[in-house]
What we know:
The complex is a heterodimer of chains A (159) and B (582). Chain A has helices spanning 7-20, 26-38, 43-53, 57-66, 86-90, 93-104, 149-158, and strands spanning 78-83, 117-122, 134-136, 139-141.
Amino acid sequence: MSVLDHKDKLQKLDEVIAANKGTRGAVMRTLQSAQDIFEHVPKDVQMYIAKGLDVTLSEVYGVATFYSQFALEPRGEYIIGVCMGTACYVKGSALILERIENELDVLPGQTTPDLKFTLKDTRCLGACGLAPVIMINEDVYGRLVPDDIPGILAKYKAM
Amino acid sequence: MNMINLTIDGIAVSVPAGTTILEAAKAAGIRIPTLCYLKDINEIGACRMCVVDAGGRALAAACVVPVSEGMNVKTNTPAVREARKVNLELILSNHDKKCLSCVRSTNCELQALCVEYGVEDENRYQGDITAHEIDEISPSIVRNNLKCVLCRRCVAVCSKVQNVGVIGPVYRGFKTSIECAWGESLADAPCINCGQCIAVCPTAALTEKDDTQKVFAALADPDKYVVVQTAPAVRAALGEEFGIPMGTSVTGKMVTALRRMHFDKVFDTDFAADLTIMEEATELVNRVKNGGVLPMITSCSPGWIKYCETYYPEFLPNLSTCKSPHEMEGALIKSYFAEKEGIDPAKIYVVSVMPCTAKKFECQRPEMGQGAMKDVDVVITTAELARMIKQSGIDFAALPDGDFDKLMGESTGAAVIFGATGGVMEAALRTAYEVITGKTLEDVNFTQVRGLGDCEVKEASLDLDGLKVNVAVAHSTGMASKLLDMVKSGEKDYTFIEVMGCPGGCVNGGGQPHVSPAEREKNDPRILRAKALYDEDAGKSIRKSHENPEIKQIYKDYLGEPNSHKAHELLHTTYTVREKYV
Lengths: 159, 582
């Protein structure tokens, strides 16, 4: 089963390809839209884009791996970003990260098998006054200690 | 033209606006070191070896910064020298420094710069090393990213010159590496095996797949009858590996060297080049007379063939069905020669010495052989042969000249020029003219199709005794793709097209001795090596393929006539559509 089997999604991608083909920066814009449509850009999507835009797969893959915003594999419903900026790090974010790793049994960059959570270590999130900070999608949690983690995760597991 | 005046190291220079500092310095006779730079192909300021003091706050990369009025450039200050040295030391901090066992040692641009800038401690900076697996699955090309300096020359030549684009930078920052999409091996990607990436690599990140040990093993095996054949372009470049000036043909020494290495027979692929002309010219004449598919396109270059199969499969019916010359010769060594000499063909081991890495792929194709018996058992490049000669302890430059063995050692001037762009076309025209008109061709020189043609498609319109023939010649698959697009759109109409996969033709193949880009700007191997071949052609008493006595003999004794049933069985082939996106 390929993500391309979703006919309505594929139609949207076709429209994006048609709108961008032959223009400067077409690969990046098309990848961005494709990520919006499919939530990630796996190989079959990249191949489809390459054929559609008449560029090499190498070019598409190069752009997709250059920008960390592009996900090559499916991501979880909730993206947990653990701030590893200086302030958070000093305030013990490594222990927060370790606790989340243990609770979810994933490493940074990985996604839980139920596709619920993707764990990421991030650069400064800009909330240093609340250090240590994590974000789950758009929600910010600050001044954390490791024992706060199970309760926070439970909320999302229940959603 | 708007001229810009500046000084470089105190020398007043006047150059057109838009000129880079690097080019302006060259005009003033000042050399600025480069590593990633490849004129007109890769000018990206990535390696920063060319930094100079151009008066700004930071040092400027001379290869990308254009000159400006009144600029005062200093290329040789303590700060500039130190910056270049530190730059090299940083490159070395993430480089596999096994120079002693490196095939490019003494011919490596990074190594040469380290010597030049007096790098005393190759381990001055120590830190993370990016992990890479060596990709050695392709029959032609080995990529070892542990030796890669991320100059991107290979990327540029693959996409811009060859219009293939199977490699590119992936990920970013420290994790950046040059590879195929999705970590595929070059063997599985739609790579055409041409090896132009090898030709431009400053280090040993890209090398040909080394098959020399297979050849040494065969030579040491008393049960094998080892026959070697050499392509036309090999003789025009082999001498460079032994200090002989570029553009010197070393045919006689090469033959002697091969004999001293104990090959049982030393044959000339030029013989089969003449044979190719017999087959191909006949095929062309038949296509013209019988309304066959035109334009007919030459099929000697296996990189071009794979390109056509992958990127322009609609043109497969246009390809001549002729095998490439060394495959023809291999097939005949294991049939015609084996029968004549009473040798069991299963015991014969055919080694082809080629200027080409794509030939290593070609000889493995299932179409190239009779069942399990391959026409050619192994292909080594000119560079590999040079290594074998050195390992055999042969003082190449001092060797006396030798002659190829009889039966498949005679060749004409037409065959010799097969190694240069336009050569196959010219050779075919020499024979086609006489076949079509029945007259003797007095002036055999078709100079219109010779040379580099300013790196554009070469065209000629010929009148073969009333028959108008439009021909075109492309060298590089990128040029071929432009040409085919024009044919497809109906903009151009040709009878016969020659394509060689590499710029300049086989003389500049991916398996030829390495010439650095700086050296190439002074001595262009595409021109000098080709000149060696044209000089050899001019010096030959027989310059038309159909006049080669051994060719006459093989048709009389064995093949019957060109394009006969037997010829088709042994000398012709079929093609395979390949997937462009894998």
